[in-house]
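Q: Sequence in, structure out?
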Amino acid sequence: MQPGYSPTDMSVRDEQSPNHSLWHRWVNAPQKVGLRRALFQVHLWIGLALGLYVVMISVTGSAVVFRRELNLWLVPRTVVATPGVTFTPDELQAIARRIFVPEQVKTVTAPRRPDRSVRVSLEHDGRVVERLFDPYAEKDLGLEFPPLLRAEEWLVDLHDDLLSGLTGRFVNGLAGILITVLGITGAVIWWPGRHRWRESLVVNAPLNSRKFLWQLHSCIGIWVFALVLVWSITAIYFAFPEPVEAVFDYFDPDPTNSLRPGEPVLLALIQLHFGRFGGLWVRWLWVFLGLLPAVLFVTGFALWWTRVARRWLAAAARRGEANATQASAVAESGE
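A: Exactly. Output:
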């Protein structure tokens, strides 16, 4: 150390040296980087703007995870077939008339396999209802499309297309782009520096402390960051598949290939989006994970409300009181 320089002086010189680049400062002390503060504002306002949408897409996504299983559980598609027994269309029609009100039976659709239930169309007061029956036991098996499945399909339409067809899917694609930005900016903001990142992976603040909501929001966000990116990127693909398909076609020299270069990655991302792998435990896990984006909005909104909005409202109230006091004083002086 040169005479006349203290360690503090040396540290100041080091911080001002060219070696302390933006990357170096972000890795070690990101809180002092101006870009991080700018990204915080981007993250904040995208989150507030998309908040209710994120809650809706999160809840409906979790609600439809068991879509396939519900169809199997609620609709009896198979029956116990009697070996050697087959039915002609006329025989199925006669069985249907014995099970249901004869005058209501309109059409009977024969299954392709003998162990499948038979669909019958019934008309009553101008309303057509599809039901299933077992021709061997001559038993009514219930509605082909029960109310719970109708509600499930309504949620699917809300989740996929916002009940608006291609327009809703287009909006979902734009939202997917914004949520991708939201996730990336959130990950950048989360980074606490290379000496503190491990402790930022868990919530260690007391429940009643001011830091608890921030730590909970940050911790959940970083743990589901990769999965949120999967959901948002695949949502973009579902809305705008043509550019992705064009890229696959460009890099595929042989159009007879069953899988184009890069396509297995896309298919894996789609499987991850829906949780279509593993067993039922994966579906339950996806139900839980699917609700976490909604929790992120709730905690983020609570942080904004307590740290920003409440101060705005308090300041506005004080200005209102001051203006009222000033107006009263002016009125009294005029008298």
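The first strand starts at residue 105 and ends at 109.
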